[in-house]
Amino acid sequence: GYIDRPRREWFDTYYSDTWDQASQKNLGIDREAEILKARKGALGEIGEAARRLTIDKNRYVLEIGGGVDRLPKALQELGYSKIVTVDNSKYRAEIVRRAYGIEVLAYPFEHKRAQAELKKHAPFSLICSSHVLEHTYDPAEIIERCADLQTEGDYLIIALPNVKNEVPGQIILFLPHLHGFSDLSLRRLLERFG
Hints:
This protein is α/β, with parallel strands linked by helices. It has helices spanning 8-18, 21-26, 29-38, 44-51, 71-77, 90-100, 112-119, 139-148, 168-173, 183-192, and strands at residues 61-64, 83-86, 103-105, 126-130, 155-159.
């Protein structure tokens, strides 16, 4: 049942403007960018997987919904020179842009403007996303758009919670998680788009 689910526009506005309202009142973009820039890069689960791949570091890499994580800096430290991030939060996008000096698109990944900009850099050797797919309005659309931005032999790395390990009440009551995935459901989704 999605009968009471808010419309896509509500979610876009929520993640673009509302999600970070409390943070915006604390330090401000300039100070948060300084703090982020001073921190060491962190690969995390996505970056550790990416580090093991043989990828041409001169091709574009895309992170979907990175927020203010340290993966772009870690990728820069590993020698990747062309990194693009998409994050729906205008606030987080500006922090990352200032901290790392990379291209950050402040739109939902599936938005027409984001897709038009991303196609200028495609195909991406690596697209990665950590704990984002469960928040998206239409996960199939996200995977389809990823497939459109890559060619055979490129990599897609996705990290997300396994629905089998989540607390059932949390799944039902935690609005930002619109979807739950098991190994099988994720595999089937990915197979639909090659």
